[in-house]
Write a structure and sequence with these properties.
Elements (H helix, E strand, L loop, with lengths): L2 H14 L9 H11 L7 H11 L4 E3 L14 E3 H7 L4 H13 L4 E5 L5 H6 L6 E6 L2 H13 L5 E5 L2 H9 L5 E6 L5 H12 L2 E10 L5 H12 L5 E4 L3 E5 L7 E4 L3
Helix pairs in contact: 3-4, 8-9, 9-10
Bound molecules: S-adenosylmethionine.
The site of S-adenosylmethionine has 22 residues, from helix 6, strand 4 and helix 8.
């Protein structure tokens, strides 16, 4: 995507973004001050793994079932490049981990495992079970080594194209508390996966959609998701968007500084 598109969307975000001083709704004020705007306290074991992977220059064949990487072209990719360019950074992964703690998530769905670093953050709450989906067999293999390294017992990795794996897996998951959508960054699959996941969610479930301003397609998907009749509050953090389904919240959309 053109640098101009990225600069324009960031400029719009920057103009609209507010902090706690402009948040009047008690829920959003609390969520912003207690969950979003917090010091980054990373997990040293996970960050040491990120560092190891960032120094691993082996090349892997990546079969990409999504929109492709915005930074990495071709099927042959260096693990080090994936670790440096395609993963959520510690600031965002620790936020997702705090959100999982906030909603006391028992069942978490992550679309797009990649090397498994973010998955390990999502799996920090011992009461949670994380179902994580990855299309590329070679990345899934590395992710399963990451999970062993991290000592995580509460992660189930599902390998294959989401177009088939998501539906078969959801048939055995009755209820979802938190979703992190970060796989196929296209308009139609984003809305389709959202609808399927919504059918298993409840009023207190929280959805996080990554890369909402990366492409016009993802901006369009984000605009539709915010307007969905079952979404009551949405928050734009530029890199990702949060969707809240609780009908006791006012219908509102906020752009938050992060
Ligand atoms: C941006 S990476 C995920 C990063 C990770 N969630 C994080 O936060 O660090 C996206 C991943 O989604 C996978 N993916 C894309 N489309 C997919 C699909 N249709 N089915 C399964 N996996 C897919 C890609 O192979 C890639 O590894």
């Amino acid at each position: 995507m053109s640098a101009f598109f990225k600069i324009k969307t960031y400029f719009n975000y920057w103009l609209d973004a507010v902090d706690e001083h402009s948040l009047h709704a008690p829920f959003l004020f609390d969520f912003y001050t207690k969950i979003i705007k917090r010091e980054v306290i990373d997990v040293p074991l996970i960050e040491s793994l990120r560092k190891q992977l960032s120094n691993d220059h082996r090349v892997v064949e990546v079969e990409d079932f999504g929109a492709g990487s915005k930074h990495l072209a071709g099927e042959k990719r260096k693990i080090s490049d994936i670790a440096k360019l395609s993963l959520s950074d510690a600031k965002f992964s620790t936020l997702y981990s705090r959100i999982a703690g906030y909603c006391k998530a028992k069942t978490i769905i992550e679309l797009g495992t990649s090397l498994g670093i973010n998955t390990l953050y999502l799996a920090q709450q011992p009461q949670s079970k994380v179902y994580t989906f990855e299309g590329s067999a070679s990345l899934a293999e590395i992710a399963s080594i990451s999970f062993e390294f991290g000592g995580a017992q509460n992660i189930e990795l599902i390998t294959g194209n989401l177009d088939t794996t998501l539906y078969s897996t959801l048939s055995r998951i009755p209820k979802i508390d938190m979703v992190f959508m970060d796989a196929n960054h296209r308009y139609e699959p984003t809305l389709r996966y959202f609808d399927s996941l919504l059918a298993r969610s409840h009023h207190k479930s929280i959805f996080i959609v990554d890369d909402i301003h990366d492409t016009p397609e993802m901006e369009k998907a984000w605009t539709e998701l915010k307007k969905h009749p079952l979404v009551y509050t949405s928050a734009d953090l530029f890199r990702c968007g949060l969707l809240f389904l609780d009908p006791s919240l006012n219908k509102q959309h906020v752009v938050l500084r992060f």
